[in-house]
Each structure stands twice: as C-alpha cells, then as structure tokens.
Amino acid sequence: MELVVHKYGGSSVADAQKIENVARRIGKVKESGQSIVAVASAMGDTTDELIDLAHTVAADPDPRELDLLLSTGELVSCTLLTMALRNLGYDAITLSGFQAGIRTDDMYGKARIFSIEPGRVQSELSEGKVVIVAGFQGITEDLDITTLGRGGSDTTAVALAAALNAERCDIYTDVDGIYTADPRIVPNARKLSEIDYEEMLELASYGAKMHPRSIELGAVNGVPIYVASSFSDSAGTLIHRVDKVNELENRVKVTGIAYQANLAKITVRSLPDRPGIAAALFEPLAARGISVDTIVQNTSLERITDISFTVSRSELTLAFAESQKLLSQLGGTEVISDDTLASVHVVGSGMQNTPGYASRMFRILAEGNINIDMITTSEIRISCIIKEEQVADAVRLLHEGFELGEEN
Amino acid sequence: MELVVHKYGGSSVADAQKIENVARRIGKVKESGQSIVAVASAMGDTTDELIDLAHTVAADPDPRELDLLLSTGELVSCTLLTMALRNLGYDAITLSGFQAGIRTDDMYGKARIFSIEPGRVQSELSEGKVVIVAGFQGITEDLDITTLGRGGSDTTAVALAAALNAERCDIYTDVDGIYTADPRIVPNARKLSEIDYEEMLELASYGAKMHPRSIELGAVNGVPIYVASSFSDSAGTLIHRVDKVNELENRVKVTGIAYQANLAKITVRSLPDRPGIAAALFEPLAARGISVDTIVQNTSLERITDISFTVSRSELTLAFAESQKLLSQLGGTEVISDDTLASVHVVGSGMQNTPGYASRMFRILAEGNINIDMITTSEIRISCIIKEEQVADAVRLLHEGFELGEEN
To answer: Is B194 in contact with B177 (CB distance < 8 Å)?
Structure first.
C-alpha cells in the first residue's frame, strides 16, 4: 500500500476547530486507500509559552530539562489530533518521539537524528491505523528526551518518510507553496509548481518558511517534499530532483528572489593582514554561539585590512561586545556597526553556467538607486547586503527585472 | 546515606512562586545530608484542564491517548521544579515515569504499578543529584504511557519509597496532617501525631485527602508515610504500624470521625428473596463502572425483600436507569431513589474488642434528633447514612461525644 507522510505546523493545529479540520484532511487520504503517518507540531505558540514558563523559575534553564518540558507541546497536539480522528471514526494512535523510534544524539535543543527504528510505526500501520507522530523530539541512547531545534517537526517528517520509504512527504503549513518572491511584497509573484532541492535550500536559508535541515535531508534521501496550505486545497510546490538534462536550454535560469531583514553589520578596522587573523576573530564568536552570515575582507592596503560580517540584529549587542574584547589582541583600531541592513538574494540553479546574472542584478539595483553594501555569491545564488528600508523595492525590482511574475 | 521520598501535590506547585518554595524545602533536606527523591503532581488544575481540552475534540476520548495527554502535566511541573532547584545551585534531574522505571499494566486511566526498576534513579542519586520523578504515570511492557488514576502521585511516591528502601515517604499537601474530624466542621478537632495504616485507610475512604491505594501500599511494604503541609513547618501526622501490644488498654479507642457528602440511595422494592438476586443486580452495575458503597438487604417477609444501596450522587442517573432496566428481569415492583444523603463514620482500631461503641454512636445521633437511614460496620468502623443537611451536626456531636477534641 502506498504510504505518505504529512506534517502539520503549529498554526495548522492551533485550536480544536483547526485540529478537526486536519483530522478530516487526514481522513480523506486514508479513504483514498493510502497509508498515512502524520507529524504535528505543538499548538500555536505553545513552545514559546513553555520557554517563557521555564524562565519564570530559572534565569538559565538546564537544556536537558528544557527539552523534556518542550517535548510536552507536541504530545498535547498529537493526542488531541488522534482523538479527533477517532471521533470521526478512523482508527489512529499517537506515538511520541521515542515510541516512534527517533534516536538522536544528546545535543539538547538542537539534537540531530542518527537513526529511526521504524518497527512500532510499521506495526501500527499494518493494523490499518493512522499513525500520528510527535514532531520535534527524539530520545538518546540513555533514554533522555531531546528536541531537534528550529524546523524540528519538518525534520521529523522528512526523516520518517525516508525511513519508511514513503512516496512523498507533504508539509502543510500556513503558506500555500513556494513563490518566486514573498507575495506580500510582490503581488504578482508566481507560485512554483516544482523546485530543485538545492534552489529550495538557498530560498529556505533566506526567508522561505522551511528550515534548510529538512530540505537537506530530503535531498540526501531522495524524498520528494510537497509544500502546501493546510487551510485550502490549492496546489502547492513539489521540492524534488528536477531533471535538468532534458531542459537545460529552455529552463528559466532564475527561480526566485529571497530576502532577509533584521541584519546588522560589524566592521573591525585596520587589522594586520596576516594568516590566522580571520580565525582569531571568528572562532571566539562561534564559541559564543553567534551565527555569522556574510563575511567580506577588503583587499589589503599596506598589509592593513578591514573585516566586515553580518549577524542577526538580535545578536548585534553580544557580537559587538565580543569583537571589542578581541580588538587589542587582534591588533585592530576600532569596531563599528550598522544595524539598518537587510539582504536580497537571486537564486537559480541555471546561473552557474551562464555569465551575466550578477551584473544584471547589480544594474537592476543601481537603476533603482539602491546602494550595495556587501556582495557574496554561491554556485546558485547572488546575495547583496543593502539598507533594510530599500529591501521591498529591491525584491520588486529584481522580480520584475528577471521576469519572474505571472503573465497577465 | 539516608534516603527520603517527598511528594508534592498540585496545589503545592501551582505557580512559579510555589515551585520555588518547594525547591527551597527540598534544598534544605539535601543540605541536611540526606538523599532525596521528590515526586510532583501537575500544577494546580492542569489535569482537569487537559481533560476538558480532550473533550473539545472528542466526545469520548480514547483512554490510551488521554493518558499520554495527561502525562504531560507532571512533566511540566517536574521540569520546572528541577530548573528551580538548579537555579538555587542544587544538582537535580527530572525523570519521567518511564525513565524512573515505573512499569504498569495497561489499564489506561487506572493503571497499577507491577514493578519499579530503580536503576536510573539510584545511579542519579549516587551522583549526588536530587531526583524529581513525574508522579501519576508509568509505562507498559509495550512502551505505552499510562496514568495511575486518582491519588496516582501518592501511589508513585510510596511505591518508589518501597522500591528504594527509603526511610520514609513524606506527602506534602495543602492540609497539615490528619485530624480527628474535618477542622472546617469541628473547630477544636485535634491533629493526630500518628495513626495506624488500617485506621488511616478507613479515614481516607471517607473524606480524608489521601487516596486509599497509597496507604495500602505503605502498609504492605511497611513504608512510614508522613503527611504534612507544604506551606508551613508545623508537625504533621505519621501513618505507620502503631504498636498496639504496649498500649492496648490505655489507647483511645476512637481515632476520628469521617464523613462523605453527595450520596444517593437507590432502593429496589419487593424482590423475590432467592439465591443470586444480589449478584443479578450488582454485577451489571459493576460492569457499567458504577461504584456501589453501602448495601443493605431488609429481612425477608414472605420471601419478598427490598435491596438498598448508596452511590455517589453524580452516578445516580446512570445507576437508576440501569436498575430500572433490570427490574422486570429481577422480578421487583419498583425502583425508588433519594438524593439527599450523606454518610458519617466513627473509626478506631480499638473498637472491635470493646462492646458499646455502636450503641453509643446511635445514642449520640438520636439525642441530636438525627435519623439513621442505613447502618454498616467493619472491624474498625461504624457507618451511618443520614440526611446530608444534618451531616455537619452529626460530625460535631460525635466528635464531642467521643471526646476527641483538644483539651481547653
């Protein structure tokens, strides 16, 4: 029997009414003759509320305890979903992360799945049951409960789909697919019917609602991932291995425009340009858990250089203080920062073999009077750091300039 | 090292402030040089709220799913308690029911512990940690989560104390001990410094805040149970094997007066007095889960008899309908009910060898103009069913009549 895995996000199971709607959707799949495993996130903002609760009793909650606390959110939503399914007459059972055999390492708060033992899930499926699996959680070899961090339930769903050899993993969320740009900014943005894993990875890293981990996992295991809305029946977007050989010439080269707001830049001025200087700066930052994105080192002038890097704006204070502490040790003169920035990204897997995409991006931005602060590129992405106040204009202009919109 | 087990009820961990108070209490024990395992219930009314939530999605929630849902309540309170302890500088760890090795049968909603595998608890204790165990929950052989039903956390605590050979099990709650009568009704009721398991069982069955299961478990395993308030430092009541040989003659014969409100009586009239008639009535009632308390069968007159029994008032409608259904099959004439009743109980382990206690009880009630509807007795208890409106008077009169009050 064909097996599908569904995943429903927190907004899709936010209250009793929405949980019943999800139960009806799952019921339809069951009635179509397919087997189904559904992974659910915690209801609405439950996870944030539990984190707040932890902070009422401890300034710095213990990570192991916090994971055990947070794991309750998905048990609540999943048992309610199972009850709703049974209330509609479908046989169903909830399995917690450990009952579903989701084995992880012990990096609390950001555990990684190292194996799935699918025996229990398979035996419940073979009895004709709908299996509801608590997302976001797993268990260590010592039987301690872990959580998988941001995007955790997506990761649970794709990993289960891989372990169970499912036909497909459907991610139901509050957006109805992947667009060529954020439709709130670009009204004629086009919904993509399909996208390659690598392109989706770049889009997911910069703004799209999915976490890159689950896309990576899908790519590695060849699991097709279908992203659609849990609130409508309109067609979504299939993320899979797009066969490029057959359409190499005809393929639109740019897939979409992504952006990321709330960035800040830190520049460490007048550093001696010697080997190891970058490591001496970024290793301590990484040790403090600061996630650095774009890094640019200026061309050296008389063996003196500047290093600039971007961080999420919420981490600016910490990153700035840490950089200040390192300044004399590094031999620099000063640390300056700019907290008014954002990034805009042109993504497309056809770009790497075709010259001219970068220059076209820069010209479009220049014609819009948008100044570029920093530039980085990857094989399938060109990124520019710009002023945040211009980011909506930049997305619109690039979307139009690369002719990505719906035809009128 | 001496080991104690503490249990804190829902009202003792109802909010962050109360959880911190409990953490401080546990910290003091740790600093006194004892090892400690603490069992906590869910915060405040969490369990009832989760049951209500289940009923928003399903008219008749599946018992297995309900147990998995309810088990989250104790995980929340326990992880918060552990975080609070760590915040105060004590090393602590939460163990869920399954991590603490609490193995049960699969009677969801009222599972019974069949064994405790204390390995993990012992190894955490040997590392000097305070071990916080989620009460009320266990795990079956198939790794499904169960709950232990009413009084479940008390049962967890006493069972753990037995399995770990603890010195004592302390039950901290919102009352500060066991009294000779309900102090809200009898202002000069006396707090007992000690009470025998059997006497406590009778009191617990009729009004005292502890569930009989944990008392039974303590009696069978010889675990002394100390009941005291989590909100004060005043001395509580020790439930243990009271040595009666040495004090047989001097012992006050009556230990306390208990009562139970919200009773209803059903009478099935004019039944043929033949063998098996009681079984034919009560087996179907038991099969419907109706808990019958006092049963009285009148002396037969011309081979025709009446059978009366009491049920909790909330079960009257169901029990009445069931009795009506059975009426013609039983050969009775009618079913009548009375929903205005309560029970009052005189409890004391010295009574069985000493005549006159029952008649003294009846005389005290008669002098108070309180009519007795039904009477039952056990070895250490005499119970009368009376009108609920007279129950407070009855408790006061019996407490005074048996001279149980504080001396002024």
So the answer is: no
